[in-house]
Design a protein that fits this description.
The protein is mainly alpha-helical and 655 residues long. It has helices at 28-46, 57-77, 82-115, 118-132, 136-143, 160-183, 188-209, 211-216, 218-236, 245-265, 277-289, 294-300, 303-310, 312-329, 335-361, 366-389, 398-404, 410-413, 451-454, 457-463, 493-507, 522-538, 557-562, 582-599, 606-610, 638-644; strands spanning 419-420, 444-449, 470-476, 511-515, 543-547, 574-575, 602-604, 611-612, 615-617. The chain is globular and about 85 Å long.
Length: 655
């Protein structure tokens, strides 16, 4: 994230924020905007239900960075030679970005060495390497899938946004220099507008086809930085909003839109795309109209807000690291402890800024930048070796070694063939094998739902001819069965469910298994399932089988077990599920059992098949981790699926 000001002699590339007719020096409201942005991000990461769209703080940062960096580069283009233009710019970037980043990377590496097991530490060192080489967005992108480990256990996943900014810093100076020489610097606003519109169009298309790629790709995010660059280009040309009541009103409305977007409007499922226009345009409006406005004088420019803005970069780096360390040690920390972690983050950020960043920015010795580069190179080298060699300072028992191995349920669920990725696939991607499992003369048993239905396929398939039905699987990630197109925020879920309903009308299967991550509200859940049951009966389905929840070992069964000490280093057969989830699982199981009786459906209770009282199986064999009950927190492994369904039977259809 670019700084608003850096102490240095006249003519240096950083200096002050871009001047305009409305402001001829440092703009405290820019630091105030930073404070708002980092505040939204902190609240979102600490209390996501309170600020569900707080992630747009990152988009505010993007616009600010594009504005400041573009202004710096445009003013320097005609003032210094090309060699110094690049050297001074990147030297300032190193002094600005490397000190805090190095401290955070080293702190994470040290903590992980003593507290993380080899597989987890290997994942951490991948992120350290990505952070040190500014490709963390690509690391996150490559690791993101439906069964990926929770982001709450990845201390450096938030560096993806810093990586996008650094990639912007690599391309932007060269673009400005070359284009300026070709056009004598007369058409920068046109260039930046064209780039912004092109990148926005790409972002909109990609968000609808591959939202993960859209979220982490620099090409779908570049328009946000270019929007800030467009404002800077207009300011350097002498174009600016006139201060006055109109500017005051627009600035206030723009700030309120940012806050409203974070609280009520922005939907992460359709982001960035069109929805990113709200924070980007609002931030650009605050920068354009805010200089000297009442918001500048009375809110964004006040000392406390400006100070928070000044430390926003190290605060952004530290807050997620501290929250993640807390959640690794305590998977379900109380709210007061989360709040304390955020307060600690502010303290660490202030110390980092005043005791490390500022002292290293003041000296003019180029050796400071060289030393920082060398240290970053050493961190990168260590991270690459640690990733390759699977280093860790934690000694493992034989059981812990087995638990540290990964287990991938995707092949057993038939991922991307009969269990679709709803974010990137449509119903046309169901393969012929999804409807050809069993003798053609047998009646059809359809599996309809999300991953909690897909997990049943290995167990039903293993029953073979004893089941007496021909299996058909039509499942998709995050797509419970539904009738009313209520999952517009989940990729292609509505299209996939509509296709399955059409399939049911056409083929009229004898029996249908339904399961899914239903709404938490019991009334809403019962209404959804009841409507599905009516639909199935109306379309010739004789037997409806509703499946209940499995015990939830949040945040992760392997993560829980690997930190336990067991007699003789042997996993027990049963344990009590976490107190944070077990009462809710029991209540949902009882509610669904009662609902099944009311709607005339058969009920398959996974709790009854895995638990006795408060003791539930954690494994079904000694083959670890494949023999564990869950592959994460509540998805059955293939062995567990076969175990719970080993004696499952369906009544033969009548007539």
């Amino acid at each position: 994230m670019a700084e608003t000001r850096v102490v240095g002699r006249a003519g240096d590339l950083d200096g002050l924020a871009p001047p305009s007719p409305a402001t001829t020096g440092y703009r405290p409201d820019i630091d105030g905007l930073r404070a708002l942005a980092v505040g939204l991000v902190l609240l979102y990461h600490g209390f996501p239900s309170f600020v569900p769209g707080g992630f747009i703080g990152v988009d505010v940062f993007f616009v600010i960075s594009g504005y400041l960096i573009t202004g710096i580069l445009l003013r320097a283009r005609d003032r210094v030679r090309a060699r110094r233009y690049f050297l001074d710019f990147y030297e300032r970037r190193v002094r600005r970005i490397f000190p805090a980043l190095l401290l955070v990377l080293i702190a994470c590496g040290t903590y992980g060495w003593f507290r993380l097991f080899p597989a987890d530490y290997q994942n951490l060192t991948q992120y350290i390497a990505g952070g040190a080489s500014f490709v963390d967005n690509l690391v996150v992108w490559s690791q993101t899938n439906y069964f990926d480990a929770s982001a709450a256990t990845k201390p450096l996943i938030h560096l993806w946004s810093l990586a996008i900014e650094e990639q912007f810093y690599i391309v932007w100076p060269l673009l400005i220099l070359v284009f300026g020489r070709l056009t004598r610097g007369r058409f920068y606003p046109v260039l930046f507008a064209v780039l912004a519109v092109s990148s926005l169009a790409y972002s909109v298309v990609l968000t609808s086809t591959d939202p993960t790629a859209a979220y982490y790709s620099p090409f779908s995010r570049g328009w946000e930085l270019a929007a800030g660059g467009l404002v800077a280009a207009m300011h350097t040309r002498g174009w600016s909003a006139k201060p006055g009541r109109r500017a005051d009103v627009i600035t206030i409305v723009a700030l309120l839109l940012i806050v409203a977007g974070a609280l009520f409007v922005v939907d992460s499922a359709h982001f960035p795309g069109w929805e990113a226009l709200l924070p980007v345009v609002a931030t650009a409006a605050v920068i354009w109209f805010g200089a000297g406005s009442i918001v500048d004088r009375r809110l964004l420019g006040t000392r406390l807000i400006v100070t928070l803005g000044l430390i926003s970069y190290p605060l952004y780096l530290w807050h997620w690291v501290v929250l993640t360390f807390l959640r690794i040690e305590d998977p379900a920390p109380p709210g007061w402890l989360t709040l304390l972690a955020l307060v600690v983050s502010v303290g660490l950020a202030a110390a980092t800024y005043f005791l490390l960043e500022l002292p290293l920015r003041r000296p003019r010795l180029r050796t400071v930048s060289i030393s920082l580069l060398a240290t970053m190179g050493a961190v990168l080298t260590f991270a690459l070796f640690a990733t390759t060699m699977q280093w860790s300072g934690v000694a493992l028992t034989s059981t812990q070694k087995a638990l540290s191995n990964t287990y991938n349920p995707q092949p057993a669920y038939r991922y991307r063939t009969c269990f679709l990725d709803s974010a990137t696939q449509t119903a046309s991607d169901f393969t012929p094998s999804c409807a050809a499992d069993g003798p053609a003369g047998d009646p059809t048993l359809l599996l309809w739902g999300d991953s909690l239905t897909a997990q049943l396929y290995p167990g039903l398939e293993s029953r073979g001819r004893a089941l007496g039905y021909r299996l058909v699987q039509r499942t998709a990630s995050s797509c419970p069965p539904e009738l009313d197109n209520q999952y517009s925020d989940r990729g292609n879920c509505n299209e996939i469910n509509a296709s399955t309903r059409a399939y049911i009308r056409k083929t009229r299967p004898a029996a249908v298994v339904i399961n899914g991550r239903w709404p938490d509200d019991e009334t809403q859940r019962n209404a959804q399932i009841s409507a599905i049951s009516v639909f199935l009966r109306q379309n010739g389905v004789k037997t409806v089988i509703l499946v209940g929840p499995a015990p939830d070992w949040a945040p992760d069964l392997r993560g829980i077990l690997i930190r336990e000490t067991f007699p003789h280093d042997t996993l027990p057969l049963t344990m009590t599920p976490p107190a944070s989830t077990w009462p809710g699982t029991q209540a949902e199981d009882a509610s669904l059992a009662a609902l099944s009786a009311r709607i005339g459906a058969e009920y398959l209770s996974l709790v009854a098949r895995l638990c006795t009282g408060d003791q539930c199986r954690i494994r079904v064999s000694g083959d670890i981790p494949a023999g564990l009950v869950a592959s994460d927190h509540d998805h059955l492994t293939a062995q567990a699926s076969r175990f719970v369904l080993k004696d499952f039977s369906v009544k033969p259809p009548l007539g």
